[in-house]
From TrEMBL:
Every V-type proton ATPase subunit S1 luminal domain range: 259-399
Keyword presence, Signal: yes
Pfam families named among the record's database cross-references: Ac45-VOA1_TM, VAS1_LD
GO biological process: regulation of cellular pH
Protein name: V-type proton ATPase subunit S1
One GO cellular component, as annotated: bounding membrane of organelle
Stretches that traverse the bilayer: 420-444
GO molecular function, one term: ATPase activator activity
Keywords for the protein's UniProt record, in alphabetical order: Membrane, Signal, Transmembrane, Transmembrane helix
UniProt family annotation: Belongs to the vacuolar ATPase subunit S1 family.
Length: 464
């Protein structure tokens, strides 16, 4: 049995084509999954047609251990019996973005050999987000499928190995990742890892050994951060310490034969006679939420949320929406006609007709507040109202719902904000001053006749 060894290599930067030019990296850059529990997995092989193009995952998909086995089984049964597992300590999608030579910096790519291998490989598959549990059991899974124990090798050991295409072999090559916060240290390590990959593949190519290779990591190197603007503005946000992004709760979904109505808010709070209650935790992500009274068809929808023992009684909130066709725009538009609050046998109405948009879209607004001001979307029918409602980061869709995901949102914020109007008017005023001044300068005329001291004096009676 050959001695086990772990490869730890550092190398300087290497000039190579940018990784983002490759077909498969569009998946890596597009996927925006949370990076705390998932790692990327890159597969390629010297054999053809091991993975169908349809197997490429869509944006945001997280590959489970069962799904991963469906991808690996055909490659292990029909493909080469020599399997290489490049296992890095840490790796995330953000590493490809930060060090892959994006934005035209081709010379800065830290993945040139990996890029070349995937470009030349007859079969390749990229899984942008694989569950860490599936990766943690990957070595054991490959060992069981191949019937061969994993062999930890370095470059020197690999050159001495005599691989046979008919005999299974599982070669494990560990790659490091630095925890340093500096910019160059991770780049150098990733470049060194890429050099190791290139040398291993060159050794196999020189021996004409068929193989299947996989690159993944034990854990992610980065944690996704919330990039949303804070209320203090971008400059304030850059000065403040970033905090981990909170996992959003799922929307409320009313289903009959399929999802029909979706409702979501970052915060849902109500007040009765100045006594406030936060209903967020009682509404979103709750399996036993009472939706009795909800209704849906192609022209009307009602989403009813009932809460027991709210302010000492049973309270029901009804979001009532209508869908109508308008010949002027030649399309259907939905309108949230009103919000009803049923409690103690009485009903409080809020006009919500400003919540509207094309029926193929959802509606989104940062703040939906009840009140009598012009910018409030919930206007009480009677004044004063004992009830107050606040919905922060509100989104609703009651028509053309596909699955449990919102369609493109029609936002309540107008395009021309007061700041934009002020800028436009100021620019037009300055343009008018510039045009007037330029016109005055072009209107200046100089004399075209001059006095000659040797001749008779001339007389200028008028200058036109």
């Amino acid at each position: 049995m050959m001695a086990a060894a772990v490869v730890w290599v550092r190398a300087g930067p290497r000039r190579a084509p940018a990784l983002w030019q490759m077909r498969w990296l569009s998946l890596l850059l597009a996927a925006t999954v949370a990076a705390e529990q998932q790692v990327p997995l890159v597969l390629w092989s010297s054999d053809r047609d091991l993975w169908a193009p349809a197997a490429d995952t869509h944006e945001g998909h997280i590959t489970s251990d069962m799904q991963l086995s469906t991808y690996l089984d055909p490659a292990l049964e029909l493909g080469p019996r020599n399997v290489l597992l490049f296992l890095q300590d840490k790796l995330s999608l953000e590493d490809f973005t930060a060090y892959g030579g994006v934005f035209g910096n081709k010379q800065d790519s830290a993945f040139s050999n990996l890029e070349n291998a995937l470009t030349l490989a007859p079969s390749s598959l990229v899984l942008p987000a694989v569950d860490r549990y599936a990766v943690s059991t990957l070595s054991t899974y490959l060992q069981e499928k191949l019937g061969a124990s994993p062999l930890h090798v370095d470059l020197a050991t690999l050159r001495e190995l005599k691989l046979n295409a008919s005999l299974p072999a599982l070669l494990l090559i560990r790659l490091p990742y630095t925890a340093s916060s500096g910019l160059m240290a991770p780049r150098e390590v990733l470049t060194g890892n890429d050099e190791v990959i290139g040398q291993v593949l060159s050794t196999l190519a020189s021996e004409d050994v068929p193989y299947t290779a996989a690159l993944t990591a034990v854990r992610p190197s980065r944690v996704a951060r919330d990039a949303a603007m804070v209320s203090g503005g971008l400059g304030r946000q850059l000065l403040e310490k970033t905090t981990p992004a909170a996992v959003p709760h799922p929307p409320v979904s009313y289903n009959d034969t399929a999802p029909r109505i979706l409702l979501w808010a970052q915060n849902f709070s109500v007040a009765y006679q100045e006594q406030w209650e936060d209903l967020t935790s009682l509404t979103f992500g709750v399996q036993e939420l009472n939706l009795t009274g909800s209704f849906w068809n192609n022209s009307a929808a009602i989403l009813a949320l009932t809460y027991e023992q709210l302010f000492g009684t049973t309270v029901t909130f009804k979001f009532i929406l209508a869908n109508s066709f308008y010949s002027v725009s030649a399309r259907h538009w939905f309108t949230m006609e009103r919000l009803e609050i049923h409690s103690n046998g009485s009903v409080t109405y809020f006009n919500a007709s400003q919540v509207t948009g094309p029926s193929i879209y959802s509606f989104h607004c940062q703040y939906v507040v009840s009140g009598t001001k012009n910018d409030n979307l919930l206007v009480p029918h009677s004044q004063p109202s004992a009830w107050q409602v606040v919905l922060r980061d509100f989104q609703i869709q009651a028509f053309n719902v596909t699955g449990e995901r919102f369609s493109y949102a029609s936002d309540c914020a107008g395009f021309f904000s007061p700041g934009i109007w002020m800028g436009l008017l100021t620019s037009l005023f300055l343009l008018f001053i510039f045009t007037y001044g330029l016109h005055m300068i072009l209107s200046l005329k100089t004399m075209d006749r001059f006095d000659d001291h040797k001749g008779p004096a001339i007389s200028l009676t008028q200058i036109v």
